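Justification of computing resources. Each target in the renewal requires a structure prediction run like the one illustrated here; the chain below, 237 residues long, is used simply to show the kind of job we budget for.
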Amino acid sequence: MVHDPDFWNSLRVTLTYTGLVIVVAIGVGLFTAMLFNRSFRFRGVARAALMLPWAFPEVPVVMLFIWVVNVQFGVINYLVRWIPGVTENPKWLQTPALAMGIVVMVAAWKAFPFYSLVILAALQSVPQELYEAAKVDGASSSQLFLHITIPGIRSTLELLVVLALIFSFKQFNIIYLMTGGGPQLATETIVMRIYNVAFRFYDYSYGAAIAVGGLIFSLAIAIAFVILQARREREFA
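Resulting C-alpha cells:
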C-alpha cells in the first residue's frame, strides 16, 4: 500500500475533496445561519425550506444533478453558453477538474443545511448585550463578526469541522453514483479506492488493508480534535 501510487492519489483526492467540502458547506452554512438569525417575515417557513436539501435522499439528488450537468441538454450548459467565449458545452463529469467541482458542489449542497442549523443554534446563545455594547463603542459589522460572533461560536465551528471531515471522508454514494471515482481517478477517494479494489478487482485483502489505513487516518483526526478541546478547556480553566 505504501508503494502504491494509486493509494497516494486516492489520499490526495480525499484531502482535496474533504477540504473543499468543509470550506463550501460550513461557509455557506455560516452565511445562511447569520441570515436566518435575523428577524424577518416568514422566517419559520424559510427555515423549513432551508432543510429540504438535507432531507432529500442522496439517490434522487444525484439523478437531478446528473440531469442538470448533462452535456447535451443540461440546464447548466444552457446558462454557461451565455458567457462570452464559450462555444462548446463543457463535459462536466468527463473532465477531471470539473468533475471534482461538481461532486463537491453536490455534497456541499446536501450537507450545508445541517451545519447551518447547528450554527444558528450557537448564534442564538451568544449574548446580545455584547453586540449592543460594541455598537455603542463604535464597532463596525466586520469587527462584530470577528471579535464577537466567531469567538462565541468557535467551539461549535471546530466540532462541525471534525464532523465534516468524518462525513466527507466516508462519503460514498454521491461519488459512486456521479463519477464512480473517475474520470482518470480524479474523484477516487479512499472509500472509492477500497470499493474498487475489493469489489471490482476482487482483491479483498488489499482492500481491507486500505480500510485499516483509512481508519487510522480517521482516528488521528478524532484524537487531534480531543487534544484541541482539552487544550481549550485548560485555557479557560
